[in-house]
Amino acid sequence: MASQQPAFADSAPSADPATPVDPAAGDGGRHRLPKQRSVSRGSTVLGVAAIAAVGAGGVAAAQGKSPVSIPVSVPDVLPQVVHAVAGSTAEQPPAAAPAAPLDAGESLLTRILAQAQAQRTTADTAVRETERKAAEEAAAKEAAAQRVREEAAKKKAEEEARRKAAEEAAAKAQAEQAAQLATSYGKPVTSYTPTAGFGESSSLWSSTHTGQDFAAPTGTPVMAIHSGTITSAGWAGSYGYRIVLTLDDGTELWYCHLSSMVKTGGKVTTGDVIGRVGATGNVTGPHLHLEVRPGGGGPVDPLPWLRDHGVSV
């Protein structure tokens, strides 16, 4: 009994009826198998497409997203894939693989860095805003202080101008008054009682009275009748303490029986206090004895002379 071999032992692919056998071929008369290149590549592409679809769904599920849905079935896309692969050459490079999505850790790190950058930017903006506000406040305070200083300086300048104007006005008024006084005449005493007059006779005098007496309490101020120069001051015997005031025209005015002499020399003007009423010399009581001697000569009656110069006595 002959041994049986497995059915697949001599099951060789049968020759394609449409393919003739070439006796000259060196294949021992065996049939050549048809090339399966395009079918094998199509199968491979089909497998890759299926794996990519499954992988995309898995990745979406891992990231918490909805699974990727495949709009068409594998049999539907198989002819297109096979056709695309068959039309390509072996020399074409494989298509670039899609960029792998960031994993959860890299995504979290990216968000943290973005948040940190945003917070840093916000902090920098806040610092700049604070510095700007501080600079504006400082500038406003400095401007206010400058205004206060300017107002104070302006007020001081105005006060100084008013003070200077007042001083100038006072000096001008004083100068005008002095000029007026220099040309004017005044009374020798402001409060008095006329007593012995010029030309009277008495046992008190060796001759007639040579002046006009103005009775007043001791210490009453005695004033210059007109502007002039004190040419003599001191003790004069029966005249007591005497001051001689010489006017610009040479007229001498004698102030006698003084208790004290305030001015003993130099220029004086109308109204200046030159001495005080007293009772020195040949007197019976305190009074001012006034003599008027034009040109330094003999005495004349003081009362008409005073009236001639506008002094009411």
TrEMBL record:
Alphabetical list of Pfam families matching this protein:
Peptidase_M23
Stretches of Low complexity bias are at: 1-25
Q: Which domain of life is it from?
A: Bacteria
Q: Where is the M23ase beta-sheet core domain?
A: 208-302
Residue ranges of coiled coil: none
**Classification via Gene3D superfamilies:** Glucose Permease (Domain IIA)
Q: Where is the composition biased (Basic and acidic residues)?
A: 126-140, 147-170
**Which residue ranges does the record annotate as region Disordered?**
1-41, 119-172
Record protein name field: M23 family metallopeptidase
- Per the UniProt entry, what species is this protein from, by scientific name? Streptomyces silvisoli
Lineage, uppermost ranks = Bacteria, Bacillati, Actinomycetota, Actinomycetes, Kitasatosporales
